[in-house]
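pinned: reference chain
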Amino acid sequence: MKRPKCENSDLAKKSFSQPYDCSECGGIWVRKEDLPRMNDAVFDKSEDILCDITVHDSKTGICPEGHGIMIRARVEDEVPFYLERCTACGGIWFDRGEWQRIAGNHFLKHLPDFWSHSWQQRQRKEKNRWHYLQKNEQLLGSELFASLMTLAEKLKLHPEKSRALAFLQQEVNRQEIPS
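pinned: its structure tokens
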């Protein structure tokens, strides 16, 4: 089997229960039929995974089994990265460190979903929401932010939430009358 992104030699398989791996770049090829039994597998425990994860992400690869160019799926994470999958055989290429990121975030059960538009859209929305909340907490301070989040939860299902919001806005904007 040829390496998807490296130029030189072939992929190797260490044992029946292990995927094919590339000794040059540290990537692994997991065939579709091997994915179900790979849930607990750990391959590379290096500490520089965040640095390595984007090294080979600048381009997609060629299916090691000779089916052509693989399609990519963006994985929204602390450091976003791309996974490649062959549309013909369903195998997935994981660049060095990507398996650990997927397994560490409990995404393995969602692996086939990564290439769907709805999954990608949901991931972008979740990431945007997280950034939005982080920015507001930073600007408002942790104590006020926590109070506002608690109040927001209480108001979500309240039948008079519009009145409560109007009251809050009026009280915040109310001018004190000098005595």
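why pinned: The beta strands are 12-13, 20-21, 28-30, 71-75, 81-85, 92-94. The radius of gyration is 24 Å.
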